[in-house]
């Protein structure tokens, strides 16, 4: 997509009136009226506190909100927040709001922010999720300082999560990214992150924007691009990610936003991950791993039932994706009684690698491949919840590392599937 | 009397011999045309097979779901099916051209009609092929959506989608070749109408509680919140 399609004339006029900036903060909104006002105020406080001398702008890319989110961003940015506060900006804090379309699209929103960062020559650009109810003023410093002062290219978050939150991240995205690219990135699909002007320039010329992967999950594409290109990546601990009930439970949408972009990025970077054999730690500020263990009620039986019926009902689809041996094992697991059910690390990793290879070889429509992964995820989630119901934080971390090792150990199997000319050959 | 019979028989024999002598070279020519036609059609088949292999036609068909569909009805692979079709049409075309050059005016007229019919036949076959591809794609999409939404009887939904699309494409194909147009259209209308009526009755009568719950959930001002166990976020 051409830059003129991303930056409308009106937005361009506003950006030109702002001139060059040192720091840009991007917020992509869609009907976030409940939280966005508070988020902007906290961001503003952080910028005033930690970057009082820098030229700063806040850019809101809106996907056609009908609840007045853009107005709230403008109001929060210019309001005399905490009138008693002694914090004052030495420079004007600009706030721009622009609508990129009538339907929400993370890809288009981030494309707009990246293009604006490039145009404004921002030395550092941070993206803040509009629903971050737990945001603190320190987040702006933790995200932007490594870029602005220490010349890192990409800063990613580490969150404090509930131990059963984000099972797709802990069981697939994190271990698979680690095994493939040799960097222990805890949140391969970050909600909040920051990037340098160099990385913005590189992203702007990237072909991800025109693809489904880039439209639905640009954050994962950013992560893989940074890891595969050997950029200077940093992790920073932010604190709690947010309340569980505020996050979307839509599994298929989550698969499209994470696993789809990961598989797509693997194709673009196969020369890198095929030769990557060692795992290196990433410089991190704060703890790398932090989970809470309060009790949470989860209907595991429903997960098991949906796995069981899903695997059996989807046999004709799974047959074209999985090897006969893997499919047989999954079907046996689906027929087992709930108490006897298990989904081992080895079987899980083999299933995921076979899905990745099927996606690469285009065995069926790619979106159908991602959708077919949902029942398998439910089975794995059920097994994870059952096996770790009484596990301590240390035990959870040890099991996570063991899963990383399994992904790494079975990498030759992925390579074999990946390079096969035809499935079955 | 005897001479007359002998004379008639002799005349009949002479006519037969004359006609046979007249026909024999034509039969030989037709045989040669048929043999040459077979060689030409075979060569076309080999070239086509190589071309299809080059463009990975079978892989494309497999991706679209056509290969599985053909396998289900015990037909060969899509590329082999297409090669066979082209081979037989090419050979038949050459033979008919040969017959046309040898035969009478009425035969020529029928053969001309056959050649005029061929484009419509191809269009109809193409419609059926596209219909099968669409049926396979949308049936799979329906199956996945039903399974992931935890709907009951996902295969029933998927098969219904497939049947509707296949029946629609076949009725369009029949209409294209002008065969039993009204019958096929009425048959399609009956199948489609019956299916919709059946679904409506099943939902309205069999699932009254489900329907009420669905409508309440959909239109109620205060929708019930999902339980925590249903909203454990994957990300």
Written description of the protein model:
The complex is a heterodimer of chains A (425) and B (235). With 425 residues, chain A is α/β, with parallel strands linked by helices. Chain A has 2 domains: 3-292, Spore Coat Polysaccharide Biosynthesis Protein SpsA, Chain A (Alpha-Beta Complex), CATH 3.90.550; 300-419, no CATH class. In chain A, 53% of the residues lie in helices and 12% in strands. Chain A contains 19 helices and 9 strands. In chain A, strands 1, 2, 3, 4, 5, 6, 7, 8 and 9 form a 9-stranded mixed β-sheet that branches. The longest helix of chain A is centred in the C-terminal third of the chain and has 22 residues, at 366-387. Chain A is globular and about 65 Å long. Chain B is mainly alpha-helical and 235 residues long. Chain B folds into 2 domains: 30-103, no CATH class; 118-217, Helix Hairpins. Helices cover 85% and strands 0% of the residues of chain B. Chain B has 8 helices and no strands. Chain B has helices at 2-54, 57-64, 66-72, 78-102, 105-148, 154-177, 181-206, 208-219. In chain B, α6 runs antiparallel to α7 and α7 packs across α8. The radius of gyration of chain B is 30 Å and the shape is elongated. The N and C termini of chain B lie far apart (110 Å). The interface between A and B is medium-sized, with 43 and 26 residues.
Structural class of chain B: mainly alpha
Count all strands of chain B and give the number.
0
Averaged pLDDT of chain B: 81
**Based on DSSP secondary structure assignment, what is the total number of beta strands of chain A?**
9
- Quick one: CATH class of the largest domain in chain A? Alpha Beta
* Proper CATH architecture of the largest domain in chain A: Alpha-Beta Complex
Characteristic terms for this protein:
heterodimer; A: 425 residues; alpha/beta; Spore Coat Polysaccharide Biosynthesis Protein SpsA, Chain A; 2 domains; nine-stranded mixed β-sheet; 19 helices; 9 strands; 12% strand; B: 235 residues; mainly alpha; Helix Hairpins; 8 helices; 85% helix
